[in-house]
Amino acid sequence: xxxIEGLKKSYAGNDILKGxxxxxxxxxxxxxxxxxxxxxxTLLRTITTLEEANGGRITFAGxxxxxxxxxxxxxxxxxxxxxxxxxxxxxxxxxxxxxNITEGLIVARRVxxxxxxxxxxxxxxxxxxxxRKDHYPSQLSGGQQQRVGIARAIALNPEVIFFDEPTSxxxxxxVGEVLKVxxxxxxxxxxxxxxxxQMSFARDxxxxxxxxxxxxxxxQGEPRxxxxxxxxxxxxxxxxxxxxxx
Amino acid sequence: xxxxxxxxVKVAQxxxxxxxxxxxxxxxxxxxxxxIGVLFALIRIYRVKGLQRxxxxxxxxxxxxxxxxxxxxxxxxxxxxxxMIIGKAAFSINPxxxxxxxxxxxxxxxxxxxxxxxxxTVDKGQMExxxxxxxxxxxxxxxxxxxxxxxxxxxxIANATLYLIKNSSLAFIMSVKDITAIAKTEAAFxxxxxxxxxxxxxxxxxxxxxxxxxxxxxERYFSKYRRPIKNRTGFNWFPFSIKQPKLxxx
Lengths: 246, 250
Ligand SMILES: Nc1ncnc2c1ncn2[C@@H]1O[C@H](COP(=O)(O)OP(=O)(O)OP(=O)(O)O)[C@@H](O)[C@H]1O
Ligand SMILES: [Mg+2]
Description:
heterodimer; A: alpha/beta; 6-stranded mixed sheet; 9 helices; globular; B: mainly alpha; MetI-like fold; 10 helices; 75% helix; binds adenosine-5'-triphosphate; binds magnesium ion
């Protein structure tokens, strides 16, 4: 459904992504793990066109082109078919929880206002925040903000939702409520690509784990295989280090 | 020394005719310079080639010269300029238009800087979130970025407005019949300058106070969404005290 080939990205002459190829199928829940600075965020941002890539090809939602040759229409198509959940939520500060969700529906999708509100309420219900619909982001806890962020993404019913470390800005006691929502999404068949440091999520929820380091995909496979029997030395070392800290 | 109160009442009654003139100058200058200020701020932020230099030069030019010099230049240059273009009619133009020009030019420069810093306080993640729900950059700007920037600019816009109100009293130099000009003329007849100026003083105080209240209400109404954060993160520690200040929660 989404295929990326040979994706390259550099910042000011530093190669950050050195040729990444990924294939996402419908219903996939993919966890991307790897050390800090390995390019995970950059990967999500280039796929979703928030950053311009320096090379590579994307096949997605009817678009089939080199990243550098994407025209405005194709960029719009890509943006309209992805969802993005940000590390620091990025809720619209001047909108209530409900308006955060209806905004894209009404403005970008041209859905009628009351219909958009119905969709938004359903999305809020899925993340368990119906009673907070009229709160502004500043009146919500981090966990609640992130759940609104997730509701905002699912309300648009995109082909695939990208999560960039959705729980890493949260206080430890709030991580659980967000992970639970994500688990529910995964179980209901939502296609998800999740950058995460939550090894429990990667191991128990996703159906594929990608280990990235230094701008390459070092290894990928089923969680069981990656966690119990990694074939690369780097993967083994990363997992030992990170699991030692839990 | 005693004040001639009868005269003060009389001046107050005459000078009140200048209040609409003053308000007119302020409103015209504000309404024109607000959108242009936003536009110029954007030109500076996006570093639009060519234009950005021009805007920067314009802002330095206005901010780096006394307003009185700007008034004198506009007032002496424009009539003769217009005379070349439209002939004699230029000299019968109501001088208030010159006041509009000077004060608009002036507040454009101030507001450009106000909006530049206000726009930069809006997190860039707001735009990215807009793009990721399928909105166009233009739509996100109008619906998400600009409203937030305007609200965070409100205190500075209020400040600029107060300066504008007070500076507008210089319009009398261009023989605009505003509060100051009327009071001055009255005073010159009777040599009761102090009385006349006290009246002027009170009028400006009232107008400025009114403006402050309006902006306060605006701010209270529009910044609903960020009130809780403000209390927690703003500077509030009395620098000479060892203990944390006690703050009432609103
Ligand atoms: N806008 C930028 N300009 C210059 N360099 C950047 C920029 N964004 C990221 N980088 C660099 O790219 C590299 C990869 O960054 P990225 O944020 O993708 O890593 P990451 O894997 O997401 O790390 P983390 O786990 O800490 O979030 C880093 O070395 C970073 O310094
Ligand atoms: Mg990252």
